[in-house]
Structure formats: C-alpha cells, structure tokens
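[INFO] parsing input record for Ribosome associated membrane protein RAMP4
[DEBUG] input buffer:
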Amino acid sequence: MPSAQTMKLRSQNYHGNVNKAGKVPKSLIKKEENLPVGPILLGVFLFVVVGSALFQILNVASSGQEI
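[DEBUG] output buffer:
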C-alpha cells in the first residue's frame, strides 16, 4: 500500500491533469491536409470509368442488343 504522501502527490498530479484536458497546443494537433489520391490520378480514374461506361452504352446501342 502506497504511503499517504505518495497518494497525496498522485492525487494532486491527477487533478492538475484534469484541469488541462482539451488544452493541446495547435502545433501538436495533426492536420489532415494530405489527400490519399492526387487530383490527376482521380481525374484519370474518372476518365477511364466514365469513358468505358459510355463506350459500352454506345456499343450496345449500335448493335441493337438489350442491356
């Protein structure tokens, strides 16, 4: 069992930390500005997906088949 002095010191440290909750300097907060995918890669991906969908629609329309 810890001594009374140790318990008092731990209690003071705990109460000091409770009062500081949520007061983190802005320099320590991580900023989520980095995009996982670049805008050029996203554009290429959309071009391929939309282009292939349009190509498929035109092929089906020109051949006269039902979807």
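[INFO] The mean pLDDT is 81.
[INFO] shutting down worker
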